[in-house]
Amino acid sequence: MFESFRPNSLKDLLTLIDGRECYKFAGGTDLYIRKRQWQGAERKFDKDVAFIGHLDELRGIERDGYAFHIKACTTQNDVVNSSILPEYIRVPYRLMGNPAIRNTATVGGNIANAAQVADSLPILYATDALLLLKSILGSRIVRIQDFIVGKYRTNLAKNEIIEEVIVPDGNFNGYAYRKIGSRKASILSKLSIFIVYRKENQILEDVRVCIGAVNEIPIRSPEAEKIFLKNHDIEAFLLHLKKMFDAETDKRSTKFYREEVSIRLVRHFLEKILEDGE
Amino acid sequence: MMIEFELNGEKVKIESTLSMRLLDVIRNDFNLTGTKEGCSEGECGACIVFLDDQIVNSCMVPMSNVIGRRIETIEGFSKTERYQIIERAFIEEGAVQCGFCTPGMIMATESILRKGGPITDELIKEGLSGNICRCTGYQTIYNAVQAVLKEVQAHV
Ligand SMILES: Cc1cc2nc3c(=O)[nH]c(=O)nc-3n(C[C@H](O)[C@H](O)[C@H](O)COP(=O)(O)OP(=O)(O)OC[C@H]3O[C@@H](n4cnc5c(N)ncnc54)[C@H](O)[C@@H]3O)c2cc1C
Ligand code: FES
Ligand code: FES
């Protein structure tokens, strides 16, 4: 048996989960799928459930001088329709799921679920996003790279929730995004490339490159990006990324396909970014 | 526990649980069987309803997220004038074969219209991208939606 709770406020939620391990049920588009039952039957969970999707305190998008702040239970469509967020943040969300799913699926749920194919992770890795985690004891801010530990693994403590995602404003003025394969067709063949950059007076001042869904966690190398900004050597940059691939070897052809396609796409995008305006 | 919300314009109360799916409550407790269960996992759109004017897959919505909110099913929507326009277009274009996907398709069509603004072919495809039809091959459905658009725009 499991119990379900619907706390009236964020504070009540934090008090509840302080002593009790619960699923934090936001949109449920990941949680429900893992809990199939017969029609008409109540969904059975193997842990208690805290419903959080109704908490207004956990919804909304704001901007200050340094960053965009997206509360965890903001839906994907709220992101897509936001007049505050720049296009490079909105586009990956626009290409997720389908219109009805995006009205319920949340930003925090995609991160906390930490699937290998989670489509919000590449943009968040590329922009060095931070997560504001909260428990009854207080708050802490962690980098997304330190939060995601592996496939379906994060270092969220049992008594914590994600309260907010903080995306620093990097003053980027260009981006490229490509998502290959669909959830319906095949999760394994999927990969995504996300790039943001800033180019001023023909000079590339910042570039971030992230490959999603190939490894268990997104691939990004800030060191290689720094070198690339100086020498514009695409092949050397790609060589660096290639060394980071560590997908399972038992699915060789798939692994080969995903790695090859990601490298070609990154090459294509970087060539275009360097060329444009030169 | 007692759960209160608005269903097709009426305040309702029902004994249920927080984790019960909205789909089950609509079909079993309220006997509104126009909303269908296809895949049970958010892929097919047969179970689409409006929640506060936005389409959702009712197979993916727990009653906890329905408390105090407004639900509109195909039965509620079928009382509107716009429904008549959509129904006629679906029939005239041959967009209904077995009919299982039709209530969801109609709700998705309405959600495209409710967005307002100019509607492109791309927006129609995107708007129907969460609805699966195993019979028609979709072309007749797109034609029907185009016909609806023409008629609706002619009225404004
Ligand atoms: C038809 C369909 C298509 C989909 N397509 C895509 C796609 O294209 N790309 C993609 O990446 N995903 C996709 N998904 C997966 C899913 O929609 C997303 O991962 C979504 O963002 C999950 O959000 P949620 O609110 O529904 O999560 P839930 O199911 O409510 O929760 C997921 C997990 O996160 C935890 N959690 C939720 N919120 C918090 C919080 N604030 N703090 C701490 N923990 C929390 C829960 O405990 C749970 O473990 C799809 C799902 C479906 C059903
Ligand atoms: S039954 Fe809900 S989307 Fe298929
Ligand atoms: S008409 Fe049969 S599923 Fe669409």
Give a structural overview.
The complex is a heterodimer of chains A (278) and B (156). Chain A has 278 residues and is α+β, with helices and mostly antiparallel strands. In chain A, 32% of the residues lie in helices and 25% in strands. Chain A has helices spanning 10-18, 76-80, 87-94, 99-102, 107-113, 121-126, 144-147, 222-231, 234-244, 252-275; strands at 4-5, 22-25, 48-51, 61-63, 67-71, 130-135, 138-143, 148-150, 153-154, 161-168, 174-180, 191-200, 203-212. In chain A, a hairpin with a 2-residue loop joins strand 6 and strand 7 (138-143). Chain A is globular and about 60 Å long. The termini of chain A are far apart. Chain B is an alpha+beta fold. Chain B has two domains: 2-77, Ubiquitin-like (UB roll) (Roll), CATH 3.10.20.30; 81-154, [2Fe-2S]-binding domain (DNA polymerase, domain 1, Orthogonal Bundle). In chain B, strands 2-1-5-3-4 form a five-stranded mixed β-sheet. Chain B is globular. The relative contact order of chain B is 0.15. The model of chain B has no long low-confidence stretch (mean pLDDT 95). Chains A and B meet through strand 1 and helix 4 of A and helix 1 and strand 4 of B. One FE2/S2 (inorganic) cluster (FES) binds next to loops of chain B.
Q: Unreliable segments of chain A (pLDDT under 50, ≥5 consecutive)?
A: 185-189
Mean pLDDT of chain B equals 95
Kindly identify the CATH topology of the largest domain in chain B.
Answer: Ubiquitin-like (UB roll)
CATH homologous group name of the largest domain in chain B: Beta-grasp domain
Largest sheet properties of chain A? 5 strands, antiparallel
- Per DSSP, the total helix count of chain A is 10
Structural class of chain A: alpha+beta
Number of helices of chain B: 6
Oligomer: heterodimer
Element-by-element helix/strand order of chain B:
EEHEEEHHHHH
What is the overall silhouette of chain A?
globular
Unreliable stretches of chain B: none
Largest sheet of chain B: 5 strands, mixed
> Which structural class should the secondary elements of chain B be placed in?
alpha+beta
Mean pLDDT of chain A: 92
CATH architecture of the largest domain in chain B: Roll
**Terminal CA distance of chain A:** 65 Å
In the residues of chain B, how many domains can be counted?
Answer: 2
